[in-house]
Amino acid sequence: MATVAVAYIPVAFVVFAEHLADHKNLSSIIGEDLLENPGLHRTLLGDGVGSMVGAFFGGCPNTTYGESVGCIAITRNASVVTITTAAVLCIVISFFSPFVAFLDSIPGCVMGGVCITLYGFIACSGLKMIQKVNLEDNANLFTAAAILIPGIGGMAMGIGDVYITTIACALILGIITNLILSKGRHA
Asked: What is the mean pLDDT of the chain?
């Protein structure tokens, strides 16, 4: 039981942090505050219901994905109709082997370029979120460093049967660093 809790509590924090960051980034792209309208409570409820439905059919929990936000940032198309149509088409087309073969024929260097662009947008979106943070304050600087360096460097760790991913390590280190450095501020 403790092993499951140790494994899933960081995952819950990572999913929440990713949800919050993605909705803040989407808000800046479309020019509307999604945390106010429809509201954080509604978007989190939507993720929760989606995860329950997915689990009912044997799928894994869903979350917002930085990759999707990156695609929206690149195309500047945040239309629900367009995104839903693309999702349905991807599912339907995946059943046709000629299309799958076509995708498999795309050279690795082209996909590598796409990945650099996409993940570059995601990284820049993350940096954009901290641009208003006062990095002249050493506590903020240490907290940002505790998140960025393990996250970019790919820090991950295993404790017994529990594997903590890069994002989870960066998040946990950021939370711990912030808690330690915040104690001195409010005393």
From this structure: 83
Question: What's the sign of the alpha-carbon dihedral 175, 22, 162, 46?
Answer: positive
Structure tokens at 17: 């942090």
Where along the chain do its domains lie? Answer: 134-187
Give, as one character, the DSSP assignment of residue 61.
Answer: P
8 A C-beta contact, residue 47 and residue 64: yes
Handedness of CA 26, 28, 30, 33 (dihedral sign): positive
DSSP notation for 1-32: -HHHHHHHHHHHHHHHHHHHHHHHHHHHHHTS
pLDDT in tens, 57-101: 887 767 667 777 778 877 888 888 998 898 899 899 999 999 999
pLDDT value, residue 93: 92
Burial degree of 175 (CB within 10 A; 0-12, 13-18, 19+): middle
Q: Which long-range contacts (CB under 8 A, 24 or more apart) does 41-48 make?
A: 43/19, 44/16, 44/19, 47/15, 47/19
